[in-house]
Design a protein that fits this description.
The chain is mainly α and about 150 residues long. The chain has six helices and no strands. It has helices spanning about 15-40, 50-70, 75-95, 105-110, 115-125, 135-150.
């Protein structure tokens, strides 16, 4: 096999350069995609929509606690416990948060400020040494939580 029998290198097609540029461009876009999404504004947290049946169910449960309290069937402390349970169940159904044993501090750390605020008000009525006389602000806070997140 002499030098006359050797075949020279084949020329690359221009399409190989185009394909290589496309792959390189895709890799660079993938690398900077989080920055592009943040610049476009999609990083802004939007509140999830809660289905109307969930909202109406919890609003009626809050109204039932309020009517039992108004009738004098249950005390303020028991009503506060029931309301705290309702608020935690709402967090579970609305956001998928396991909130059965969630404290207001845990909710605040998790970024659920509205839930934390509602639970904090309920703690005052639920664990007060003296029997609280009015649960109106806490009921209003629970309603505000349910309506705000829908």
């Amino acid at each position: 096999m002499g030098p006359a029998e050797l075949v020279g290198p084949l020329q690359l097609s221009a399409w190989w350069y185009v394909a290589a540029c496309a792959v390189l461009l895709a890799a660079v876009l993938n690398l900077f995609a989080p920055l592009l999404r943040a610049a476009a504004g999609s990083g802004a947290k939007s509140r999830p929509r809660i289905p109307i049946p969930v909202r109406s169910t919890y609003m009626s449960r809050i109204a039932a606690v309020e009517s039992k309290l108004g009738d004098g069937d249950v005390g303020v402390r028991d009503s506060a416990r029931d309301l705290a349970k309702i608020v935690r169940e709402f967090a579970r159904d609305a956001w998928g948060v396991k909130a059965e044993h969630l404290t207001y501090r845990d909710a605040a750390v998790a970024g659920l400020d509205d839930l934390a605020e509602s639970l904090s008000g309920l703690y005052e009525a639920e664990f007060a040494e003296d029997e609280a006389h009015d649960l109106g602000p806490q009921i209003a806070g629970a309603r505000k939580l349910v309506t705000r997140w829908s």
